[in-house]
Amino acid sequence: MSPSLTENPMxxxxxxxxxVVPDLFSPEELERWRARLDAIARxxxxxxxxxxxMRDVMVAKGAVVSDSQIEAIAKVQDFENDPVLWGYVSxxxxxxxxxxxxxxxxxxxxxxxxxxxxGVDGRHPLHQDLLYFPFRPADRIVxxxxxxxxxxxxxxxLVVVPGSQRGEFLPHENPDWEYLNTGYFGARGVGAHPDxxxxxxxxxxxxxxxxxxxxxxxxxxxxxxxxxxxxxxxSTACRYLExxxxxxxxxxxLVRGRxxxxxxLARHP
Length: 269
Description:
By secondary structure, the chain is of the alpha+beta class. Helices cover 16% and strands 25% of the residues.
């Protein structure tokens, strides 16, 4: 059974590195975000400024011929300027939970829709999201990941290693796989961790997890999709590493509270 808000959420999060929260969103909201993903992938909705729509590597290399545009798309990133999808990131119910984990001054630092179509590999090796964020402390960063439809072992649900957030930040590398989507790095030497737990989730369930938590996802072996919507948040008091400027900048945005003068939003007006 996944850690959830039936227990003390902060205690669960600190112990396990993740917590599953039900019922933050209405069925109508979930359908609105699902429909928007479909429309963007099919080209019937405009792509917002800065949005990145990524094809799956097997489609891009011709190893799989997709039957439709939606079956070719692996993910949509950076949807801060999409008025429909931004409703997820700024949702007050979600921000209430995030505030309990990182404090009341909150910035959005990454947004993503994951499509995971049938017929492709689509795995993501176990990794730590801290790899992608050039600021600290790690304890003031959190991911939110919401199932837009049922996520099971068959269609490639999330996999987590409970308690791994208490370990070190590991070096990452590309695994030796024939087909690997861009940016799908894996923690070096971890492989298929014996303590991994499969997070089977119902539509609307949201998992929040620490950036040092080892997590990944499996192959979609079903005939359908495995869709989710996700955002990362950080306290605006987080500060860049000395080499943080080398990592480039995402469209970080204040979503609650205030910006700190010497925090991450100082470079992201």
